[in-house]
Amino acid sequence: MPQGSTSNTIAGTVGDTAAGGFYNGKFMVKGDTLNISWTAGTQVTPFASVNGSTQPSDFHPGVKEKSGVRSIAVQFASNGTTIRDIDRSEGLYENAFKTRNTAFNNSITGTAITFPAPTSTSTTSQGWLLKIETKNAAGDVVARTKQVSALVTDMTGLLTNLGTSFTGTWDGTAYTGGQPEFGIRANAAGTGLLIEARPGYTIRLHPQSDVGPLGLAGSLWVDKTYTGAATDLTGAAIATTDRKTWVAYLNSFGDPAQQTKVGIGVNPVAQFSAAFPDADPNTAGNQLLVNTPYTLAADASVNTNGTFTYSMAITDGTTASASSISKTFTSTGNWTVSLKVTDEEGKTATATKSFYVVNPPATGMTISPTTATRGVAGTYTFANLKDHDSLKIFWADGTSTVLANVGGTGSSATAPHTYGTTGIKKLTVLVYKGGVLVDTKYNYITVTL
Description:
The protein is mainly beta and about 450 residues long. Helices cover about 5% and strands about 35% of the residues. About 25% of the residues are buried.
């Protein structure tokens, strides 16, 4: 417990402790007005050292983070600082965002160990626990445990204290003695441990091991990302490496700018596609042809932020739960299609569009080409003729041609002609069947030099 006098020093904070945040503020530890301070040094000691003795904590080691793997390490009192309130998020998420490395390996290489000084009165290596799980080819798992029984201040002392009955003896090529599943020696730098599985076995560290002081934390704990913590509301990558950034991510859900990106507070729009079909753009309104398949579509590009569902319906009761609807209209007349758009908040927008279903226009005779060069012979084609037995062609230059040509409906005929003057000529064709005029057509021919 801290010792000393009362103080008005403002407590420090960790993570998001502002009232009204995602977790709605703090757990009160120091009360409304009370603060306690003490002299920096050795007047305060954490309640426990958790997660393989890698983190000091004033919480009980049995208070686990949401996945139940690691203890939640929270210090609300530390040297040179007053007691502070606890962010609510600290009681839910372990600060380091780590999880256990459960893989079995052939070897485990530790980092440099910081040993206590021989004269230290505040720290000791006595009691350090090393617990190793081994697995054989049949999948049987056995745990081997050894605890440091006295103060050790270097690698030689540590290995000596562990004893060859636990570590085995390394002769430069293999281990002899010790445990049957593994051997232990100093790593290549001589500053940490090297644990090696013997043939037929694999190894991993047990969470009860004091991996912090033994330089093995990186072999027991690996980085963990909670579901949803890799991207923001729009899918952009974000860093959530610890509790503070994770809480900032959660608090962003209440940020109006973030909410707008996913459509919250933004109304849906119901609008038909600009490419709505029209068989006759020169006639007012949209004209669709009878007995012709069509797809009528909404313009989904106007709804970008959020999640949207579409439904469409046509006058005769045809419906679709989509942003488009397909139909072949079998009768002419005035029709209507309706569109409804619903967003993630349940807000809706509607639109309707009327159109006409009409018979296809009759296709008549065509005359081509429509240009000519003075003095140069050209061949003119008269296509899509009605059933006939002769044509009479007026070239609009004082001459005409009677063409004895027999053809059925849809047939074609050709005739040569040379214009002697420039200008625009109104070429006219008369179509006869049995001496009766059955069709007529004219077109303008532009004659140039």
